[in-house]
Amino acid sequence: MVQWLATIPAFVVLSTVLLLPGWLVVRALGARGIEALAVSPAVSTGLIAAFATVAQRAGLRWGLLPLLVVTLVSVGVAMLGMRLFSRHDPELGAARRFLGRPRPDAVVAMAIGVVLALATILPAIGRPDELVDSPDAVYHLDRIRTFLETGNYSIVNPTFYPNGFHAWIATSLLPGVADVLPGTNVATVVLAAVVWPVGCVALVRHALGTSRLVTYAAAFASAAFIAFPTTLLGWGVLWPNLMATALTPGALALMLQAARSKRIGQWLGFAAALPGLALVQPNALVALVLFALVWFVAARLRAGLLHHLPWVAVSRDLAVVAVVAVGGLVAAPVVSERLASTQSYAWNDRVSIWTALVEVVGGRLQIASVLWGLVVLLALGVAWIAVRARAAIPVVAMWLACVVLYVMAASSTASWTALVTGYWYNDKVRLAALAAVPGVVLVAAAAPALRELLRRAPRVGARLEARPVATAIVAVVVLPLVTLGLNGTTRHRMLTGFFQPGSPDRVILGFEGQESLRRLNAVIPAGQGVVGRPENGTPLMWALFGTNTLYRSIPIPTTGDEILIGTGFDNLAGRPDVCDALARHDIRWAIDSSHVYWLDRPERSSGLKDLASNDGVEAVRTDGAYTLYRITGCGLADRSPA
């Protein structure tokens, strides 16, 4: 924990950069309360990611000063627009309108959520510089380093990929508060332990009301699921998806607030959050569209059942939604090749419908047992909403929609289901995480249900009836007892397994390997390139030390100079094309190792195996499991970089 305490400056800077710019903008637009704070990370991310790309196009280097300028201009435009086209509450002064006034219950609830998350996450990760052993981590860490080294935070650097996650972290690390690896770990903690609980409290208060019981229940409900944030902290590693899901409750809360208040400023604040969601992970935007459609359909059906609308109007509206939804699903992959590629992902671990239901409802995903405490809370929450809080029935419908998507992704072999689940790569893990967003509301709704059951208990009910505060405390404390209490060991073991796997071949680059590569890096002249099999961990030299590595992801790409060098490096004398490729990237060094990560693609790096038998290289130094070679073939010493 001493090492985590040393990361407090990074935690503060990452949180400030993520919260402050967006909060200033949405406050200027008139959004108030916890909703403004909850939606601010999405707005901040949109500002950073979008204007970093604009800066690159204008030939400017991105940094904290450009972010400050962009924020001030955006706030000014928002304030001017609200002055011209909308009206503020007349009873509020200018300072109160802009700065707001925190609600004590909400503040305490958010603090509870933060403490719970930190207490469960930090010990499981271990050290702040611990590497999560997932191949995608290599790409994400290397891209953050690329942003920092080049000052180019564009969505197309080095290739087209949503830049919200990477641009936020790289911008926050500019003051030198942390290196790339620990800084990124702290960033994921900020998402899971700050952004997520704050968004959950805001969402629950809008779905179920602002009572103290519900507010505190929201804090405990934010820590009830293992599917999110625990699983996405390490599996995949789906860090952009982690960020997107963490941002979703705040945006959804503001959407519900705007729909009820019909204030233009709140709608504009919600609209300002959408670019950020799309620039982190586009499926977050799709999720919001899904939730909005489900909310609209459920609200229309409820209006018909309560005779608030004639069924003719309800049927017409539902028909329009159905036509638009089906048309959009069919047309989207035709218009977007990238989406079509995303929808083509196939997974082999298909399960039965019943097993899929157990996984998503019972939480038995990547763990051995059903989370019975969570199941009971979900059931109680649904029952309470159906009987006493019917205004939240659309949220139950949102959760059911996520369950249906999960079952489709986990069990269906039909090709058409990819039209729906393909936005999440047909990946049930991402959909289980998404189900936690409305699921938090259902778990929080279990608290008033438990209070009612306690009041009706034959022996203790009368005594508790006279002590309403004690009854509420007992009801809300049940939530962490049957979730964190019963399955705390399970979630700890899962998260620890991601960062500290038991099998050596599941480790990309351990601490000993990092130190060996650090010492070998000191031998390499600055700027000169290095090549090595990605599966031995050498691509991380770029993220960790700034070494100019040819490969910056696992595995090797299947096109370009990367595959050319990977398959032809063992025949430098007879492959002038390989020599030309090495010269283009100024690759003058090679590293070999006996260590091989489990995600091995030997056909892509066949030329880089067993460098000791390669006549075109000369051993320079061995350190631990790694040996550094100087490339002597190709006459690279006489060539200048292309």
From TrEMBL:
Keyword set includes Transmembrane: yes
Keyword field: Membrane, Transmembrane, Transmembrane helix
TM helices/strands, residue ranges: 6-26, 38-58, 64-85, 106-125, 186-204, 213-232, 268-298, 318-335, 367-387, 393-419, 431-449, 469-486
Highest taxon listed in the record's lineage: Bacteria
InterPro entries, sorted: DUF6541
Pfam families on file: DUF6541 (PF20176)
Protein name, per record: DUF6541 family protein
Species in which this protein is naturally found: Terrabacter terrigena
